[in-house]
Amino acid sequence: MRSLFVFTVCLAVAPFASTQQSLFQSSDGQSAVYLRQSSATLNLGDSKASFGYIHRVNIKKIFWGFEGYATANSGVTSLFSSDKPKAPEGGGDFTLGRHFVLVPMPVAGSQAKAREDWWLIDVGYGRSSFYLYPTGSAPAANPPKTNFDRFRAVAAYNFFTSGNVIAGIAAGAERRNNLSDLTSVSLETVIVPAPTGSQSSIVKTKAGYYGNYKEYIAAPIYTDVLFYPGQAKLPVYGNRIGIDFFSRSDVAAANRSSSGGLGIFIFKKDDPLTPIGGISASFNGTKVQVALTVGFTFAKSN
Amino acid sequence: MRKLTFKCTITSGLTPFIDLQTQPVALHQNGNVWSGSLAVEVDDTLNIAVTVTGIEGSPWAVDITIDCPGGSPAKIFSRNGTIPQGGSAGFTASAKVPAQPCADKPEIA
Fold this sequence. Notes:
The complex is a heterodimer. By secondary structure, chain A is mainly β. Chain A has strands at 5-12, 40-43, 48-55, 62-71, 89-99, 115-134, 145-161, 165-177, 183-192, 202-211, 215-218, 220-227, 241-250, 257-268, 271-283, 288-300. Chain A has one domain: monomeric porin ompg (Porin). In chain A, strands 1-2-3-4-5-6-7-8-12-13-14-15-16 form a 13-stranded mixed β-barrel. In chain A, strand 13 and strand 14 (257-268) form a beta hairpin. Residues 1-21, 74-83 and 296-302 of chain A have low confidence and may be disordered. Chain B has one domain. The mean pLDDT of chain B is 92. Chain B is an all-beta fold. Chain B contains no helices and nine strands. Chain B is elongated, with a radius of gyration of 14 Å. Chain A binds chain B through residues 1-4, 6, 36, 54, 56-60, 99-100, 105-116, 160-164, 228, 231, 240, 270-274, 299, 301, and chain B through 13-19, 24-36, 49-51, 53-59, 83-92.
């Protein structure tokens, strides 16, 4: 068996949802385009490390993959307007899919125009722990940690045509929380009070989140159309350029939202299906959010 | 006729297909490199059919070799190019298979 290991180092504001989704990501770290960008990643921006595997054989339509991941903290940067706090989280994803769903598998030697499609189901689980300081209640000196179990099931369909277009749609359900809407705070517990005549005291701090915490079921729908304009390349370096038109929606009644945007991605030289970075901007009707993803990838077989 | 095992290595962004003597070769994906082996009966000619797919303008390559014990593989067939407009390239070809592929073989860099 031959496997694919890809190591990616990313400086990104956007979180990785799944390595199998590749670096095509909007600012929320999501994409409807699932490429062969598996498998081990270290995301500095999100302080996330992950490891995965995809098993694919050309004459077999079914493929599968998995990923495990862990995030350490809120990441190192909020340069591009993503100042939302995140809690440490660990989890995994399992992917099962099929190529040549509506498009017939070509015969070797055929010179017909290329078309290829694939669908997949991506099922994931993640668990995070954090301190919560709800609005309107005095915090305890030793507050218990709150645990959150994230579940996610997404079905995606991707279609490649004309030699320069990959379109994708993904829809599913995810158990989420509103942690990113809360305020990142620190609880200070005085260990040694300030002596008389001094303003200095010794305190213990516990980072957490302040606000009205909620858990809810989201129904995300993502669409992407990735277009390679002609033979557009980076001057001097020669890397191909792709433009991603995308939409991100949550159609669940509790948290209905929608945004759309545009991303520009740069690809590995001679491999225009392996992005090495990009910049995307999305607009949700009230504010523009810009995300930068930079990475480099190398693969090793075993 | 003799049965020889041919190793196929194809560089292709999306799914490639290759038949040797009209039999499909199972290729395992490793990034944009796909590889696999197939044992087929040949006399002195290997019939090859290939389709590669990818983003137009991206490079593709097909290499067919025979593993040689204790040495570098014997090159049987090699072709490369660029994915044309439309996103796929297909061709059929024949390759001469030496009587002793591992003896007096051309070295592959």
